[in-house]
Amino acid sequence: MNSVIVKANGKGNRTIVLKNSSNEILQSKTILIENGTSRIDLGFNIDPGINYHLGVVGPNVNLGRSNSNIKYPYTIDNVISIKRSNADNQGYDYYYFFYNWEIKLKDCLVNKNKIIVKSKEINTPIKINSINI
Fold first, then answer.
1. Are 42 and 2 in contact (CB under 8 A)?
2. How far is it, in rounded angstroms, from Cα 125 to Cα 118?
3. C-alpha distances in angstroms, 59 versus 13, 15, 64?
4. How far apart are CA 27 and CA 18, in angstroms?
5. Once rounded to an integer, what is the mean pLDDT over residues 13-24?
């Protein structure tokens, strides 16, 4: 996972984490995010699997979320399936933090594939809670 777009309510450091299905942190990165909308580089390498969780930890989250036109799952066949948010009691009603994902598939012997998942606007969600590669 190369990068995502976020909408920050105030400049500050945020720690982005990738967790496995057992809620163990596999990768994390603390990033100074400017106020407003920006693309942040994650550089997370993700092995094929299911039920990964991407989130933010710590006291300074203040990132935009949406509850408009949420229609889980979001799927790109044989690449990714985003099943839901982990918001308590509202996992299917809200979309949190990460938009317009840029994902690069692992290199293969014949060619390289790059997939850019884009939404039309910041309020259209693209978030990975489950990755099937």
1. yes
2. 9
3. 10, 10, 15
4. 5
5. 92
pLDDT tens digits, residue range 48-83? 888 888 889 988 789 888 888 887 888 878 777 877
| 80 class by beta-carbon count within 10 Å (0-12 exposed, 13-18 middle, 19+ buried) | buried
Q: Is the pLDDT of residue 86 over 60?
A: yes
For the chain, what is the largest distance between any 2 Cα atoms, rounded to a whole number of angstroms?
45
Those residues with Cβ within 8 angstroms of residue 87's Cβ, 6 or more apart along the chain or in another chain = 93, 94, 96
Pick the closest to residue 68 from 121, 16, 116 (CA basis).
121
Q: How confident is the model at residue 130 (pLDDT cuts 50, 70, 90)?
A: very low
Of 102, 103, 93, 43, whose CA–CA distance to 68 is shortest? 93
Greater pLDDT, 87 or 60? 60
Q: Nearest-CA neighbor of 12 among 81, 58, 75?
A: 58
Report CA-CA distances (Å) from 35 to 12, 54, 55.
8, 21, 19
Banded model confidence at residue 121, pLDDT cuts 50, 70, 90 = very low
H/E stretch holding 56: strand 53-57
